[in-house]
Amino acid sequence: MPKLTKIVAQTVNANRVSLFADGKFLTGLDRFTWSQLNLKSGDELTPQLIARLKSEDTNSKCYDKALKLLSFRPQSSYELRQKLSKRFADDVIKLTLGRLVKTGLVDDEKFAFIWANERLLTRQRSVSHLIAELRQKGIERSIIQSVISKLDRGTELDSAISLAQKSPRKSGEKLRAYLARRGFNYSVIREVERQLQTQK
Q: In angstroms, what CA-CA distances link 17 with 7, 14, 126, 188?
């Protein structure tokens, strides 16, 4: 039965160690799991323990990759699943997402509201465009409906007015077609025209 012969701190990641069995590299492991298992040089390694160590290593790498992705910007669970699936198996990703949801680092409803509100305020998106974007990000229909109901619809009108004012098509059918292509519905477009008329 192989024995654990060396435990070395990794230089690239201080939170991980490398385990060696009979002088050969076996696997990496995060320090928390290492301490939990109370591993030390000289310990015998059963096939079951070796399989567990390698599984823990894979789970840890998947979790670390997810945290790195989240450090760039908030992500939906669907987005994370798609990106992680390039390197990890479904069962490993499921464990990682479970941990992230439990700790609140992944919350699709919170993500959807922040995303929609930011796009509405800074990108002049219409509600229909926001719905399409959220669907692309894998957000459930019920969450989308909940999020859209909480948005300030006056902000959508402000966005449409801002776009109309920037457009060379200040009125008429061309302006209506332009706003319609941007996803604004008839009632919003009519209100934009009414308000632009009062500003003249």
A: 6, 8, 50, 59
Question: What is the rounded CA–CA span in Å between residue 112 and residue 74?
Answer: 10
164 Cβ neighbours under 8 A, 6+ residues apart: 170, 175, 178, 179, 192, 196
Give the dihedral of Cα atoms 94, 140, 73, 63; nearest 10 deg.
0
Taken in order of first residue, the domains within the chain and their CATH numbers are 4-102 (1.10.10.10), 108-199 (no CATH)
Sole residue written with tokens 């009414």: 194
Q: Is 11 left (phi over 0), alpha (psi -120 to 50) or beta?
A: alpha
Picking from 36, 41, 51, 35, the residue whose alpha carbon sits closest to that of residue 21 is: 41
**pLDDT by residue, tens only, the chain of 200 residues:** 888 999 999 888 888 899 999 989 999 998 888 888 898 899 899 999 999 999 999 999 999 999 999 999 999 999 999 999 999 999 999 999 999 999 999 999 999 999 998 888 787 888 888 999 999 999 999 999 999 888 877 788 888 888 888 776 666 888 888 888 888 888 888 888 888 777 65
Helix 186-199 with 153-166: angle, nearest 10 deg: 60
